[in-house]
Design brief:
The structure holds two protein chains of two kinds. Chain A is mainly α. Chain A is built from nine helices and no strands. The chains are: A mainly alpha, B alpha+beta.
Chain lengths: 301, 197
């Protein structure tokens, strides 16, 4: 019962954090980052103004940014509840306790970092760190999810054959996907910088003006495709349904992301594609953590 | 239907709903940018002189997008920053003929044509930036009644805002001329005006 409650709390926090990444991405693609020109307040009050504002705040953009902040607070509360449960039930389980506390630290730090981002008027480097911390946060939360799930369903994970090479390739995959996402935000940043200096360039011309590391992003994308195909092939006959499912998920998501990436080049970066390109990739970060812990059968020792 | 299939369908619809929310939000944000540029008022008629001696009236605003400012050359605070920012915009849009720049001096006693010419040489890199002078009463009237910008205790009391005027002489928006984020915003709005008229 306790374990079940803790597991559910972890799942809620994880889903909320993915949702928050989505809303954060929406802030970025709609250019609403400075919608509230200050932090933590938005304009003169804690809530954005509702009608035309004398201080020239674009109220639509303010509300988009405010929604992002509000969901950040909701996620924060959800993680505080997770920590309360962890302290009450799992004082002796250092893995879960430590991971819960770490997730609390990361959600607070990333919230403040969102404020720093506004103070520094959307400095691109802080933007990237903000994204990186969000990815680490979903990784920690995914870890808590799968660990507590395994505690509830110990029998399910018994008698699995270990595959050290597969485990290692999942670690490599996690590192590469994080690098790939950060490279993607780097491309976005560079596009913005080139566009500031050359406001009259079309999106297609902007892409051409980019540094050569856009090719590196594509190259790494295809590397990830082959790696995910390998992971899928190794998991195809796995006894665990969840492992087989996640194997297909990873391969499928990589294919979708490559497709979306190419779409953005041919259709000049429609904003919604950008949003799902980033968001879908961020799912892979947590899923790989779950898969890694699924196939490492510590209960057999 | 199995549990897993049900979950997949829920997941699919969640993504679909998020997509619709995303599209709607992006569309609203784009719309709000255009609405934010709604017409504030029309620039009234005026007559001032460019530093090269030619006359500059409201008719010179026709068929050009104009960025206007009030400055004076001896100013040591905001004006150099405002003018540097306008020079930056002039460079970035140098490939476009749709844009022009206007700076009106609030110190016509000191800022003679030759002084303005010197100032122009310092900040302007193209002949689409006009430095205007005229009777101080005309300047005050244009600032206060035409642009709704305070002009008390001149020359120092001029506004530090940049004014965006469309090709039909309509004032569309104001920007703090010394704040980088506002300059980026102005730049984006110029692009919006060039693209959408």
């Amino acid at each position: 019962m306790k374990k079940q409650l803790f597991f559910q709390s972890a799942v809620v926090s994880t889903i909320l954090s993915y949702f928050l990444i989505f809303v954060g991405g929406l802030v970025r693609v709609s250019g609403a980052g400075m919608g509230c020109p200050n932090w933590p307040k938005c304009g003169d009050g804690w809530m954005p103004p509702t009608n035309i504002d004398i201080n020239q705040i674009n109220t639509t953009l303010a509300w988009i940014e405010f929604t992002n902040r509000m969901f950040g607070v909701i996620l924060g509360i959800s993680i505080i509840i997770l920590n309360v449960l962890a302290v009450f039930y799992f004082r002796k389980n250092y893995n879960l306790l430590f991971a819960s506390i770490l997730s609390l630290i990361f959600v607070i730090v990333n919230g403040v970092l969102g404020g720093v981002l506004v103070w520094f008027e959307l400095n691109p480097y802080i933007k990237t760190v903000h994204m990186l911390f969000a990815l680490i946060l979903v990784s920690i939360l995914s870890y808590i999810c799968i660990k507590s799930y395994k505690m509830i369903n110990t029998t399910l994970f018994k008698g699995l054959k270990k595959n050290p090479i597969l485990s290692k390739s999942l670690i490599v995959f996690w590192i590469l996907i994080v690098v790939e996402i950060l490279l993607g935000t780097g491309i976005r940043t560079n596009l913005e910088l080139v566009s500031i200096e050359n406001p009259l360039l079309s999106k297609g011309e902007l892409l051409n003006a980019l540094d050569s590391y856009k090719y590196f992003h594509s190259f790494l994308g295809f590397t990830l495709f082959f790696l995910s195909a390998y992971i899928y092939s190794k998991l195809r006959t796995n006894k665990l349904y969840i492992a087989r499912f996640l194997g297909i998920f990873i391969l499928g998501m990589i294919v979708v992301q490559i497709f979306l990436g190419e779409m953005m080049i041919f259709f000049e970066l429609p904003q919604l594609t950008r949003l799902f390109h980033t968001w879908g990739s961020s799912w892979l970060v947590g899923v790989v953590i779950i898969l890694y812990n699924c196939i490492s059968n510590e209960y057999d020792k | 239907m199995s549990m897993i299939n049900k979950k997949l369908i829920i997941a699919f619809f969640s993504v679909l709903i998020l997509g619709i929310i995303g599209l709607f939000t992006i569309d609203q944000a784009t719309q709000s940018r255009i609405n934010n540029l709604s017409v504030i008022s029309e620039v009234p008629s005026f007559q001032l002189d460019n530093f090269d001696g030619t006359s500059f009236t409201e008719k010179n605003l026709d068929n050009k997008i104009t960025v206007a400012s009030f400055i004076f050359t001896q100013c040591e605070g905001a004006c150099p920053i405002m003018s540097t920012n306008m020079g930056l915009l002039q460079k970035r849009f140098s490939d476009s003929d749709a844009l022009q720049f206007v700076s009106i001096t609030t110190d016509p006693d000191y800022d003679s044509s030759s002084v303005l010419k010197e100032f122009s040489d310092k900040y302007s890199s193209k002949n689409n930036w006009f430095f205007l002078r005229g009777d101080i009463n005309d300047v005050v009237k244009l600032s206060e009644d035409g642009f709704f910008l305070s002009a008390s205790l001149l020359p120092t009391g001029h506004s530090t805002r940049l004014v965006l005027i469309d090709k039909d002489r309509n004032i569309r928006q104001y920007y703090e001329g010394t704040v980088d984020a506002n300059i980026i915003e102005l730049q984006n709005d110029i692009v919006t005006l060039i693209n959408k008229g």
